[in-house]
UniProtKB/TrEMBL annotation:
Entry keyword annotation includes Transcription regulation: no
Enzyme class label: lyase
Keywords: Lyase
Source taxonomy: Bacteria, Bacillati, Actinomycetota, Actinomycetes, Pseudonocardiales
Protein name stated in the entry: UbiD family decarboxylase
Domain 3-octaprenyl-4-hydroxybenzoate carboxy-lyase-like Rift-related: 114-313
Length: 480
């Protein structure tokens, strides 16, 4: 059988082909996979790591980390090109998210009868998720998390539109079950709540290994009402083949390595967490959480789990989140009709959410604040943003030194910092207080030159770039 669309193995072949794949044999699922992955994010080029012969498990059962953590791998995943660098990938992505979203409905999923995934089928009562090498990623995690790079499908009970999301999932009941930690307000959560209200239970399917395109789309705020599977079709220019789960009627990507289907019920809870999170901190305490009653499991021979463990940045998916978020925020600002926005950047050190800088060409009084407020609340940025800094177009918002220079020299704290209160926060926030609703607050910092002084603001003390280029050529030997 040829590899189905969105097969993880095809992705691995491509990554090995351009020399960004390392294989590690014999590491332990308990902390070693997580630690080696953490080391790999800091290596030059940040390679993907494929773990094989994991202690206590048969050779062939593998775990992949770092699937999208370089421009080439990210560019390949988004089908932008296989040889892009940092700048090239950002340029290639610009404008695409909104085009993909608009085209998604032309790519309904394609149900198929056969897939490598169907090679092994395990009935619910025989499921043991710990028969696969599920890692304990960080020393203070509450357990073993099989779901990090996973793709969870729910549906809208009224329209039937599918939603694909990525949420952390901890193995429960000694391998027989698994929790699903969806933050309130996410599209997946809205679907699950509405199923509970209508039917008292909610169907769900989960793939644990697939082309990382599904990790990127499941893990990014694709607009409400758009199926991530159809959106993936728009990225690929082809309908995504799926197997229909017989128990739930929900799709499972045919390219999946390992998948489950089952049901959530409001009273089916298991202890979950804490977990080392993308903020760089462990989240909260161990507490009851929704758990899936698994009715069926499917897996390929020698399945590969797609891991994406977060942590203090840089982490497994901080690069992809920064690039995706930056493009989506920029697209949403353009769609809002506000003029003059040059570039948005959702910094990796803020987990791609907490600290966003946007540059603009100021056109009218109030323009800079308008861009700042819109950014802080646009759907792509609304969840867990903390700081938005707006800068003039002579400042590169992706360069933190330049952003801090602009903040330090063009913003007057008394009048250029504004605070929004009771905005969309999360229990993941290290500042959130146990037992209190997870609001946060956010500051916008207007680090643009004051509009009324645009013509008279002191000149920047740097030479003309063209003059510098000429000097560099003329004095090449002296400057070498
Ligand atoms: C690896 C990874 C793990 C994530 N874990 C969670 C999680 O545990 N809970 C959550 O609500 N969001 C989590 N997210 C973020 C969501 O996937 C993201 O907000 C997504 O847009 C949610 O989709 P939805 O709004 O369609 O439900 C994670 C993202 C990634 C990439």
């Amino acid at each position: 059988m040829t590899e189905p669309l969105l097969s993880l193995r095809s992705h691995l072949d491509a990554v090995a082909g351009f020399g960004e794949l390392r294989t590690v044999r014999g590491a332990h699922w308990d902390l070693e996979l997580g630690g080696i992955a953490e080391l790999s994010y800091r290596l030059p080029g940040s390679p993907a790591v494929l773990f094989d012969e994991i202690a206590g498990y048969p050779a062939g059962m593998r775990v992949l980390t770092g699937s999208t953590a370089s421009p080439r791998r990210f560019g390949r995943t988004l089908r932008l090109g296989d040889d892009l660098d940092d700048v090239g990938v950002v340029d290639a992505l610009r404008g695409k998210p909104s085009r993909w979203a608009a085209a998604a409905r032309q790519f309904p999923v394609l149900p198929v009868d056969d897939a490598p995934l169907l090679a092994n089928e395990v009935p619910g009562e025989k499921v043991d998720l710990l028969s696969f090498p599920v890692p304990r990623w960080h020393a203070h995690d509450g357990g073993r998390f099989i779901g990090t790079g996973c793709f969870v499908v729910t549906s809208d009970p009224d329209t039937g539109v599918h939603n694909g999301g990525c949420y952390r999932m901890e193995v429960a009941d000694d391998g027989r079950g698994v929790t699903l930690a969806v933050v309130p307000g996410k599209h997946g959560d809205q679907n699950i709540r509405r199923w509970f209200e209508k039917e008292g239970r909610a169907p769900v399917t989960v793939s644990f290994g697939h082309d990382p395109l599904l990790l990127v789309l499941g893990g990014t705020e694709v607009p409400h009402g758009i199926s991530e599977l159809e959106y993936a079709g728009a990225v690929l220019g082809e309908r995504v083949p799926v197997v229909t789960g017989p128990d739930t009627g929900l799709p499972i990507p045919a390219g999946s390595e390992l998948a489950i289907e089952g049901w959530l019920r409001p009273d089916h809870l298991r202890e979950e967490g804490p977990f080392g999170e993308w903020t760089g901190y462990y989240s909260g305490r161990r507490r009851p959480n929704l758990a899936i009653d698994i009715t069926r499991l499917y897996h390929r021979d020698d399945p590969i789990l797609l891991g994406a463990p977060p942590g203090k940045p840089p982490h497994d998916y901080s690069y992809m989140r920064t690039v995706m978020k930056s493009a989506m925020i920029q697209d949403e600002l353009a769609a809002s009709g506000v003029p003059g926005v040059v570039k948005a950047w959702a910094h990796e050190s803020g987990g791609g959410r907490l600290f966003i800088a946007v540059s603009l060409r100021q056109r009218y009084a109030g323009h800079a604040r308008q861009v700042a407020y819109l950014t802080a609340q646009c759907p792509a940025a609304a969840y867990m943003n903390r700081y938005v800094v707006v800068v003039d177009d002579d400042v590169d918002p992706a360069d933190l030194d330049q952003v801090i220079w602009a903040m330090s020299t063009r913003s007057d704290p008394v009048q250029d910092i504004e605070v929004m209160k009771r905005t969309w926060g999360s229990k993941l926030d290290p500042l959130s207080v146990e037992g209190e609703p997870p609001f946060n607050s956010r500051a916008i910092i207007d680090a643009c030159r004051p509009y009324e002084r645009l013509d008279t603001f002191p000149r920047v003390a740097e030479s003309d770039p063209e003059f510098l280029r000429e000097l560099a050529a003329k004095w090449r030997d002296a400057l070498a």
